[in-house]
Design goal:
CATH topology: outer membrane lipoprotein receptor (LolB), chain A
Structural class: alpha+beta
Helix content: 10-25%
Number of domains: 1
Strand content: 35-45%
Number of helices: 5
Radius of gyration: 17 Å
Strand order of the largest sheet: 7-8-9-10-11-1-2-3-4-5-6-12
Low-confidence stretches: 112-124
Shape: globular
Length: about 210
């Protein structure tokens, strides 16, 4: 579950923070620039797989995600274990059903060691990442992003678009693990229930961390 949480944090932060950065750096005639320039919310089903540096699949998860800028998201893992990861713009909660436990941190604290800090918008994306279009694969348009910082937690990022929609994110971390998130039934710029970004815990849940932002 911890590996799932760390991996998810990276991609949740990546999605959240790419919006302003890519839009600002990309040309208006570029698919990535056009897509992220007007993106306000994102909702999709997802399948997440993780393959380690030896080529062995170590994780296969499914769930649903809602993202709304600025800084709010909900990743609902439903299989093989139930886990919720919810950010309300100030705090980030993770709840494990099996452990009957929730952990809460500030957004900055939770994402301090992830690419989200590189892509947080405090610096232009071009200062921390380089990116370029790749050859199309399986009728999808692919783009590659690479961190400029040598000690970044991520080695490379790839994104694929199909029919103008974000379909796949692939990340290789500094340990050689490859995480792949495939989205389906994607909806963008649709109204999102604000209650989704409030974590309602079952009675008796152990809470670790400070609840105040």
């Amino acid at each position: 579950m911890c590996n799932s949480f760390r991996s998810l944090l990276r991609h949740a932060g990546l999605l959240l923070c790419l919006w302003p950065g890519l839009a600002a750096q990309a040309g208006s005639d570029n698919l990535v620039g056009r897509y992220f320039a007007d993106l306000r919310s994102f909702h999709a089903q997802f399948v997440q797989t993780v393959v380690d540096s030896n080529g062995e699949q170590v994780q296969d998860s499914k769930g649903e995600v809602w993202i709304e800028k600025p800084g709010r998201f909900r990743w609902d893992y439903r299989t093989p274990y139930r886990q919720l990861i919810v950010a309300d713009g100030k705090r980030l909660w993770t709840w494990d059903e099996d452990l009957e436990q929730a952990t809460v941190k500030t957004i900055d604290e939770a994402l301090s060691s992830t690419p989200a800090m590189l892509l947080s918008g405090f610096r232009p994306l071009s200062e921390v990442m380089t990116w370029k279009p790749l050859e199309n694969e399986d009728s999808m348009q692919w783009f590659s992003l690479s961190p400029r910082q040598a000690d970044a937690a991520v080695e490379s990022v790839r994104m694929a678009f199909a029919g103008g929609n974000l379909s796949i994110i692939e990340v290789v971390d500094d340990f050689g693990n490859r995480t792949r998130i495939v989205f389906s039934d994607t909806r963008r710029n649709q109204p999102v229930d604000p209650g989704l970004f409030e974590l309602k815990l079952p009675p008796g849940t152990d809470i670790i961390g400070a609840e105040e932002p």
